[in-house]
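Changelog-linked ticket: NAI example.
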Amino acid sequence: MIITVTGAAGQIGYALLFRIASGAMFGPDIPVSLRLLELPQALDAAEGVAMELDDCAFPLLGDIEITDDADVAFEGANVALLVGSRPRTAGMERGDLLAANGAIFAPQGRAINDNAADDVRVLVVGNPANTNALIASANAPDVPSARFSAMTRLDHNRALAQLSGATGAPVSAISRVTIWGNHSATQYPDLSNARIEGERFEIDRTWVEQDFIPTVAGRGAAIIAARGVSSAASAASAAVDHLRDWVLGTPVGDWTSAAIVSDGSYGVAAGLVSSFPVTSDGGDWQIVEGLEIDEFSRGRIDASVAELAEERAAVEALGLL
Ligand code: NAI
């Protein structure tokens, strides 16, 4: 399995590569070769990470290639993790942020289109992840758009952890939690269908609205406030979970959350990359259909999807789609 990781010398890269190489992503039977894409100024740091990967003597790890050339990095890739991006800096307007990331994700989309393996699966982690995935997919016309996804699994895992903490139920007993919409403060972590030990349970709506939702949606900012830098190990762990479930399948009776290209389900405008409840049997992500959406959920989903539509309009205006 050839796995390309962009932004390999960054914080998430440092937490992610060792998990991949140890077999945490696809299990103990699938050897992995790594392709690390970095900016020219970070190639030395990426070399250092590769030296440490060597020093782990992971039995599953094949060759490691380090490059600043996207065509080389995506050559033959079965999995592409697009982590490197241009984060928002002080005073940066959203339009500037989208333009700066368009300059990264449009060429990377083209490089995936031209070089990756026929079965390539792409996970965009770098923010603004949903719209970056939209840009990459739009620039890879020969790759089915279902092969592109953006990461809301960290939000999903945060929701599991919060519900576990509040109820005392172990994470392993909780199922059918959903993140809807954008990986941003407007996301909607939804417990309407959640189960503990397979059963519906009484849930305090005031806690959900005033504690659970703001805690999950604001967790990234809380971690930056506490750590001084953004979440990295948990983001890497979520990326491992996302790819494992996509390639090996989701557990029977449960679903997970991933941002994928909408087919119009649940009133989410077709073509937007929005988070949904999804399952996989090892092929493409499938949206879980037929869930009831109450008025509160409708409002929250619509608000986050409206933000995605604005982002799409902005990148369309920049000629990135
Ligand atoms: P970081 O700043 O530590 O590392 C980013 C790396 O990407 C740097 O080494 C940089 O040289 C590289 N890079 C930048 N542009 C590149 C390009 N065009 N090609 C290849 N490499 C490039 O950042 P960190 O903490 O690793 O986070 C990465 C991204 O992940 C950020 O955008 C962050 O906001 C996002 N993130 C997303 C989460 C999610 O749940 N979707 C959760 C946490 C972070």
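Closing comment: Example verified and attached. The domain at 2-150 is CATH 3.40.50.720 (Rossmann fold). The radius of gyration is 19 Å.
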